[in-house]
Amino acid sequence: MGTDFMVGDDKGWTLNFDYQAWAEGKQFYVGDNLVFKYPEGAHDVLKVNGTGFQHCVAPAGTVALATGNDVVPLLMPGKKWYICGIGNHCATGNMKLVITVLPNTEAPAPAKTSAARGSILFCRDPTVANARRTDLRKFLVDESGEDEMEERNE
C-alpha cells in the first residue's frame, strides 16, 4: 500500500501556492496517491503533458476532476503534470504541479519477454515444491501505459 500525498498539505489545491517547492524533496512511487483538496466548483484538476503544463492548456478530450477531493493514483513511473483548468488559475495563479514517479522497488519488475512466461521454476523447499498448481495470473502493462491482465493456466 502506498502513501497518500495531500497536494499543498494543509493549504490544499489553491491559488498562489508554490507547488514546485511543495514537491521538492518528496519521493513519489508507483502505488502512491495524490489527493487534491479544494472547495468544489472553485478549481479542478487536469492531467496534461509537458507542453500543456508549460502553456497551461489541456489536450482536447481531457476530463477534469472536480469533486474537491480528487484522488489520483500513481500507476506508472515517469513525469506527471497537473494543472487547474479554471480561468487563469494555472497561468497567473500558479496552480500547476509536476512530479516524477519512481518505480515501486518492493516488488520485482515483471518480465518483458515472452520467453520468461514459459520459464519453469524449481524449488527444493518441500512445502513449496509439493504445493498444488493453480491458475497463474500475470498483470502486464502495454506501451501506452494501459493496464491489462493476461490469464494463463500452466
From TrEMBL:
Signal peptide: none
CDD domains: Phytocyanin
Principal subcellular localization: membrane
Domain Phytocyanin intervals: 3-103
One example of a Gene Ontology biological process annotation: response to symbiotic fungus
Annotated compartments: Membrane
Keywords assigned by UniProt, alphabetized: Copper, Disulfide bond, Electron transport, Glycoprotein, Membrane, Metal-binding, Signal, Transmembrane, Transmembrane helix, Transport
UniProt keyword DNA-binding, yes or no: no
Any one Gene Ontology molecular-function term assigned to this protein's record: electron transfer activity
Protein name: Phytocyanin domain-containing protein
Originating organism: Eucalyptus grandis
